[in-house]
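new request in #modeling-help
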Amino acid sequence: MTPAAPRDCAEASSTPKSRAPVSADIRLLGIATEHLARLGPKRVTVVAVAAEAGMTHANVYRYFPSKDALLDAVAGRWLRDVETRLAGIADAPDPADDKIERLLVALAALQRDALTSEPNLFAVHLDATVAARPIARRHRVRLRSLVERVVEEGITSGIFSARDRERAIAYIFDASYRFTHPLAIQHDADVPHDLIEARFGAVIHAIQRVLRAGVL
Amino acid sequence: MTPAAPRDCAEASSTPKSRAPVSADIRLLGIATEHLARLGPKRVTVVAVAAEAGMTHANVYRYFPSKDALLDAVAGRWLRDVETRLAGIADAPDPADDKIERLLVALAALQRDALTSEPNLFAVHLDATVAARPIARRHRVRLRSLVERVVEEGITSGIFSARDRERAIAYIFDASYRFTHPLAIQHDADVPHDLIEARFGAVIHAIQRVLRAGVL
DNA sequence: AAAATGACAGCTTTCGATTTCTGTCATTGC
DNA sequence: GCAATGACAGAAATCGAAAGCTGTCATTTT
C-alpha cells in the first residue's frame, strides 16, 4: 500500500521538465505540506518526502538545509498567506480604528481556523513561535509593520493621537495577546467562539479608545 | 545516603503523637513539597514520599486520593499563599485604581519569582492551569473575587464608572493576560524584567484609563 | 472503628538491542 | 558545473522484556 513509485503519477513524471513547470524545491514543499498534514511534524521523514518526489533523501538537502527548515518553510508559506490577507485589510480605504479591529479579528480568526482545519501546520507554527525560530520572528516583524502602517495612518489622519508609536504598537500586541497569540489560541481551542468574540470585542474596543485618547 | 529510616529523626518519631503535632496529611504535604522541588512532578513517587513519612504507600491514599491530588495539594498551598498576599493588597486603604495596579503587578511578580526559584512547583501550577484542574479553577475563582472587590469599591467610590461589572472584570483579566497568565509568564522567562515591566506598565495604565472612563 | 499493612492487577517507565532517520561527503552522471 | 547518488557516522525512534509505580482491597493491628 502507498506505492513508492511516483513515475506514472498524473502531475509529474520521472523527468523533471516533462509536464510540471514547478521547480524541485516547490514540489518538495508541496509534498512536505501534504505529509505534514497527514502525519504531523514528528512522523514526517525526509526519506519519505524524497521518495515521493522521486529522488534520494540526500538530494533534498540541496534545497533545504534540514528537516526542520523544510517544515518551517511549509509553515512559512502559510504565514505568508496570512500576511497577504491581513495586508488586504491594512491597505483598504477604511478608518484606522476600523482597520485595527479588522486586522486583529482576522489574525485571530485565521489562526483559529488553522488550528481546527490544519492542526499539524498550526503545531509547527506554534512551536516556531515558542522557540522564536527565524520563520516566526520574520512573521512577527511583518505583522508589526502592518500594524505600524495602520497606526501611522491613524495618527496622520488624526484618528489616533499616540505620542510614542513604538509604545502604541507594543501595547496593541500586548493587549490583544490573549486572543491573537498562538499559545493563547491553542489554550482555549474548545471555548465557544461567540464567548471569545464577545470578550475580544471588549478588548478591541478598549484598544481603540486608548489609541484615540492618545494615552501612550 | 539519604537513609530511609526516619525513626530517629529529630522532628518526628515512629509514633505519630510523640513530638510532632502535625497531622499525617500535613506531614505528607511537606515531604511531597520537598520531593517535588528536588525531583520534579514526574519523578516524585508516592512510594518514596510514604517511606520518608514512615508508612506504606497504600496508607497515603487514606489522605490523598491520588498522586496528582497530592501534587495539586502542594501547589494549592502555594496558591493560597499567593492569594493571601494579594488579599493584603486588595484590603489596603488605597484608591481602587492603585490597588488594581498593585494587584496585577504582584500577581505577575509572584509567579515570575516562583518560576525561577521553584520551577517544579510552577510547572505543576502551569499544568493544572492548562488542564483546568480543580485546584486551578478554584484559584481563578478566588483571584476573580479579589479583583471583583476592588472593582466594586472603585465603582462605589466613583473612581471607576463601569456599567457592566462582569464585563469589566473579564476585561481586566484578558488585557493583562500577557503578563499574568502562567503560560505567558513561562513563555518569556528569559526576557529582561525591566522590558516586561515597561510594557506591562503601559497595559496597566491603559486598563486604569478604561476603567475610569467606564467604556465597558 | 480507625489506622495501617501486605499482596496484587494493571499501567507506566526503564533499559538494551535493533532499526530507522538525519545530515555529510566523495563520487557519478549529464 | 549542476544535479543527483550511494555509502556512511552519529542521533533518534522502535520494540520487547524487565522493573517500578499507582491504585485497590481484604486483612491485620491497635
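bot summary: Chain B has two domains: 1-64, 67-213.
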